[in-house]
Amino acid sequence: MLVAERHRRIVDIVSEHGSVSVLFLSKELAISEVTIRKDLGYLHDLNLIVRTRGGAISPNFNSQIERYHDLDIICQNEKKTIAEAAFNILSEGETILLDGSTTVAELVKLIVQRRYRLDIYTTSLHVCDLLLSKNVDYSVHMIGGRINKNMGTSEGIFAVDQLEKLMVQRSFFGINGIDNKGYSVSREDEAQIKRCFCSVAKESYILADSTKFGRRYLIKAIDIDASPDHIISDVKRPDFDYREIEKHTSITFVG
């Protein structure tokens, strides 16, 4: 099988199944796992699939969102660049709200390393763990609720009730998909949390790498007319038209 033919076959398989493992592709194509991993890296760079730890998903995969450690491997350098730009926006003493997205986790690592004094609210157990790992002069508040075991985040009516009572200076959160109709996620519970992050902050920021643009998931979390105040992303993709989104929010590209 020629390399180009193998690449086309991998993209077709990933598209058909939505989510596949390296082992599955190796058996399906009778190719070594080492070669499959190289192929997935190459196809991910072309935005034809999304690489995960142990496999890949389709860019249009609308099913249940992956576990936190599956997402953590995707676009690591891009997330670090976005987090650096978000950190530079902060001022000492601010009250901020953080979700459990992997890009926000990169922002938290910078806060811990550089010992910023902040008043921090979060829905994420992982974020709390990062913040409490060092003796840094900030206040941490965990939003309670039902715990999503895959993502380590609180959600449900109790979490929404607590979030709706907040008035923070800035919120930082991730999203699964962005297109010209709005911002989407896989589940309604998650969508409710995203809406709160957008509404309770004086300035709201979505931290989203370039692979999120042009993707649409099952549930619309935020309508295009109710866009967050800002989006921070890595690079401007030539294959996506940003004009409709830019009518409603500012996008900063930092790649």
Overview of the molecule:
The chain is built from 10 helices and 15 strands. By secondary structure, the chain is of the alpha/beta class. The chain folds into 2 domains: 3-61, Arc Repressor Mutant, subunit A (Orthogonal Bundle); 76-253, 3-Layer(aba) Sandwich (Rossmann fold), CATH 3.40.50.1360. Strand 4, helix 6 and strand 5 (119-122) form a beta-alpha-beta unit. The chain is globular. The relative contact order is 0.12. The model has no long low-confidence stretch (mean pLDDT 88).
Report the end-to-end length measured between terminal Cα atoms.
Answer: 36 Å
Mean pLDDT: 88
CATH class (first level) name of the largest domain: Alpha Beta
Detail the poorly predicted runs: none
Order of helices and strands: HEHHEEHHEHEHEEEHEEEHEEEHE
Question: Do you know the CATH topology of the largest domain?
Answer: Rossmann fold
What can be said about the biggest beta sheet? 7 strands, parallel
Keywords:
alpha/beta, three-stranded antiparallel β-sheet, Rossmann fold, 255 residues, single chain, 24% strand, Arc Repressor Mutant, subunit A, 10 helices
